[in-house]
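Case study 2.
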Amino acid sequence: MHWTRLEKIVLGAFLFWFACGLIFTLGRIGPDTVEAWTLPSWLQVFIEFCLAIGDPALILLAFANTHLLAARHWGPASARRWALIVIVLSFAVETCGALTGFPFGRYSYTDRFGPAIGVVPLTIPLAWQVVLTNALFLTRAIAPHLPRWGQAAGVGLVATLYDAVLEPFAVRVKGYWFWHGNGAVPAQNYAAWFVVSALLALAFAPTSTRRAVRDWRAAVILGATVILFVAGACRGGAH
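Prediction:
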């Protein structure tokens, strides 16, 4: 497969940023750690910059890679339409969830995951696009002959499993959001993830307009972020 220069640059940036995040996570490197070190000024500034914007930047890079992947396989117009639909509808669902507790359960976002519109950080709908799009590519790669409803169920399953891995990292380690009540993740959350993800895929997922080719970016994007979640949850992370 011959990727464009832009695809190579954006993927390289994502992998570099992922590697930095993994090093910081495994080393439990935080602002207090950096202050205690004697480092060249440029290196200290770079590390502090990474720590300040690390996770939102990773989401932006994952989104850019995911959109380029979708544009290559579905065509730019279909990729833009799908991204817009997922971003708008997921933002609406998340806003409803944060305000009313439906459909995920009672939770609230903190200010640790970047700027927000209303009660939802801007990174959240971008993350939905990343998860659903790559889950769709993985489902179609593993089981290419599934009917549309089967593909939608596959997307719902992958997205739900992804959220299950994300929750301990996002809540306990990073504090991006918290659950009301006893702090435990309600089963309702996972049921909602499956239903919402499957419905979005069933109603709006594009069909491929180009010859199917082997493309491992979907697995890399989801796999890299899952590695960070697991590493952070195991190591306790750096706040």
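The mean pLDDT is 92.
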